[in-house]
């Protein structure tokens, strides 16, 4: 029986006529330069690509704040970059301590188990950051070779703000530090070399405001030496860092690189360099603080302690009697704004990463969110929220451009 040709709807008929404003926990809107670069295909080997790769690496060194030569791209989601760090640094019997305070940090632990790591989880209650005395005790007890931690735990909107201290304790215990910076890189300071972090991973579609599917990893010299010392090759051929270095360091073939996505990443990194990290961090801090104050002025409650809230995603508690799934579908259908629910917690999440973090997007999102809550029967004071957003943005001197 031959398979008949399927009936296909055109993309134009499937996609909304007016694009949704993507204000969830990723993917985020991309700048026009990134979108344009993503439409170009060039030879994945050869001089032009080699020069572009060189520029991606030097811009990434600035964004990761590292002098390490070991910047490698990954054709895959942020999770593939996480897996690349794990599959290269962990092998059967490697002792791993995973600091887990949510969905993504627990994913590191699962990945380490799957490559045979001897994984101990340091469970931190949701919404809280690890207690340093407890961490020190766990390091002394477990004596791990690798510690994993999420700098920003997007799932619970929790900011592990003392990554520098975590890394210091781990280094003192002779342990390599692997940090997930998918939602924090370029939104809040992360000093890879100064803090002595050995592997930092990020995806494209969050803090960097690039496309999903092309990710980056930065490895310290110490991490590279451990990879060189592996007793056998890592189990995942595509994620083998030494093979990937063929392309990222010697302009030769590993697998066909996602050229369009790398060009998009080049543009996203170039925009960050032009903005400068200082200004970008200030934009995220200013916008996030303003949005948080506005949500509270509207009469709603933010999730988490003020000092452990991310500047890249904010969590809002769902008032009693309202269904969080209904909030997300209503705001999308009625106001053309996309926000995120959560994994388990009764919160909704509004993203503030890269292009999301612009005053005009914040006003539209606050209006859409406040109106949605009112439509669903919550008591909210939307004018008070909008006034607070304006006042807070003026106070930090943030201009909408
Ligand atoms: C989104 C996210 C990931 C996973 O990224 P994917 O591209 O979905 O694989 C990992 N860690 C954190 C902190 C994230 O926010």
UniProtKB/TrEMBL annotation:
<dbReference type="GO" id="GO:0008453">
    <property type="term" value="F:alanine-glyoxylate transaminase activity"/>
</dbReference>
<dbReference type="Pfam" id="PF00266">
    <property type="entry name" value="Aminotran_5"/>
</dbReference>
<comment type="similarity">
    <text>Belongs to the class-V pyridoxal-phosphate-dependent aminotransferase family.</text>
</comment>
<dbReference type="InterPro" id="IPR000192">
    <property type="entry name" value="Aminotrans_V_dom"/>
</dbReference>
<protein>
    <submittedName>
        <fullName>Alanine--glyoxylate aminotransferase</fullName>
    </submittedName>
</protein>
<keyword id="KW-0032">Aminotransferase</keyword>
<feature type="binding site">
    <location>
        <position position="349"/>
    </location>
    <ligand>
        <name>substrate</name>
    </ligand>
</feature>
<dbReference type="GO" id="GO:0019265">
    <property type="term" value="P:glycine biosynthetic process, by transamination of glyoxylate"/>
</dbReference>
<dbReference type="InterPro" id="IPR020578">
    <property type="entry name" value="Aminotrans_V_PyrdxlP_BS"/>
</dbReference>
<feature type="domain" description="Aminotransferase class V">
    <location>
        <begin position="42"/>
        <end position="340"/>
    </location>
</feature>
<dbReference type="InterPro" id="IPR024169">
    <property type="entry name" value="SP_NH2Trfase/AEP_transaminase"/>
</dbReference>
<dbReference type="GO" id="GO:0004760">
    <property type="term" value="F:L-serine-pyruvate transaminase activity"/>
</dbReference>
<keyword id="KW-0808">Transferase</keyword>
<feature type="modified residue" description="N6-(pyridoxal phosphate)lysine">
    <location>
        <position position="206"/>
    </location>
</feature>
<dbReference type="InterPro" id="IPR015421">
    <property type="entry name" value="PyrdxlP-dep_Trfase_major"/>
</dbReference>
<keyword id="KW-0663">Pyridoxal phosphate</keyword>
<dbReference type="InterPro" id="IPR015424">
    <property type="entry name" value="PyrdxlP-dep_Trfase"/>
</dbReference>
<dbReference type="InterPro" id="IPR015422">
    <property type="entry name" value="PyrdxlP-dep_Trfase_small"/>
</dbReference>
């Amino acid at each position: 029986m031959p398979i008949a040709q399927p009936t296909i709807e055109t993309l134009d008929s499937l996609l909304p006529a007016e694009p949704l404003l993507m204000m969830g926990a990723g993917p985020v809107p991309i700048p026009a330069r990134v979108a344009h670069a993503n439409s170009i295909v060039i030879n994945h080997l050869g001089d032009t690509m080699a020069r572009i790769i060189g520029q991606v690496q030097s811009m990434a060194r600035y964004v990761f704040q590292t002098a390490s030569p070991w910047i490698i791209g990954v054709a895959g989601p942020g999770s593939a970059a996480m897996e690349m760090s794990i599959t290269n640094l962990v092998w059967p019997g490697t002792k791993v301590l995973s600091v887990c305070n949510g969905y993504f940090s627990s994913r590191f632990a699962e990945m380490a188990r799957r490559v045979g790591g001897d994984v101990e989880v340091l469970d931190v209650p949701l919404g809280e950051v690890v207690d340093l005395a407890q961490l020190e005790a766990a390091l002394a007890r477990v004596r791990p070779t690798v510690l994993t931690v999420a700098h920003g735990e997007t799932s619970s909107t929790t900011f592990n703000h003392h990554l520098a201290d975590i890394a210091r304790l781990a280094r003192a215990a002779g342990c390599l530090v692997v940090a997930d910076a998918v939602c924090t890189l370029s939104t809040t300071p992360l000093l890879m070399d100064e803090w002595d972090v050995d592997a930092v991973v990020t995806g494209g579609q969050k803090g960097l405001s690039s496309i999903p599917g092309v990710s980056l990893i930065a490895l310290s010299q110490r991490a590279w030496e451990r990879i060189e010392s592996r007793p056998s090759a890592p189990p995942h051929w595509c994620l083998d860092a030494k093979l990937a270095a063929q392309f990222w360091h010697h302009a030769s073939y590993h697998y066909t690189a996602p050229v369009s996505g790398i060009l998009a990443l080049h543009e996203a990194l170039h925009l960050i360099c032009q903005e400068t990290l200082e200004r970008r961090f200030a934009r995220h801090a200013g916008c996030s603080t303003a949005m948080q104050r506005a949500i509270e002025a509207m009469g709603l409650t933010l999730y988490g302690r003020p000092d452990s809230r991310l500047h890249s995603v904010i969590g809002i508690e769902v008032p009693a009697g309202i269904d969080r799934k209904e909030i997300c579908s209503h705001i999308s259908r009625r106001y053309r704004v996309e926000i995120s629910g959560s994994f388990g917690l009764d919160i909704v999440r509004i993203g503030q990463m890269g292009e999301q973090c612009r005053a005009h997007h914040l006003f539209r999102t606050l209006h859409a969110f406040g109106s949605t809550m009112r439509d669903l029967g919550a008591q909210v004071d939307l004018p008070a929220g909008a006034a607070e957003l304006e006042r807070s943005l003026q106070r930090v001197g943030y201009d909408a451009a």
